[in-house]
Amino acid sequence: MYSARLALFALPALVAATAIRRGGGGQCNTGSLYCCEQTQDPKDAGPSTITLLKSVGVDVNDLTALIGLNCDPISVVDGSTCSAQAACCTNNYFDGLVNIGCTNVIL
Q1: What is the Cα 14 distance to its own chain's centre?
Q2: Total count of domains within the chain
Q3: What angle do CA 43, 50, 66 make, to 5 degrees?
Q4: What distances in angstroms separate CA 10 from CA 5, 17, 37, one per listed residue?
Q5: Average pLDDT of the residues in 57-62
Q6: Which structural domain range is residue 86 located in?
């Protein structure tokens, strides 16, 4: 009975720990770690962002994850920090001007 309760309470904590990386680990489960000036829902993207994504062949209607704007890579090895929004992103376009497939993370 106690093991069933423990499993019941441990499962949400495990899911949260894998969804958002905390504690300065600086690792992403998928994609690369970036520091973005802003992340936004694709349906809130402005016309210039839409035009940039279309120019590289991205079907903006298929986007479901966040879009990262003005992103720079974060490297834990060299001590990089992020004073804006840290995010794991799967695709980088125009040297970080626009990234897609992003998930916000807490460092």
Answers
A1: 19
A2: 1
A3: 45
A4: 8, 11, 34
A5: 91
A6: 32-104
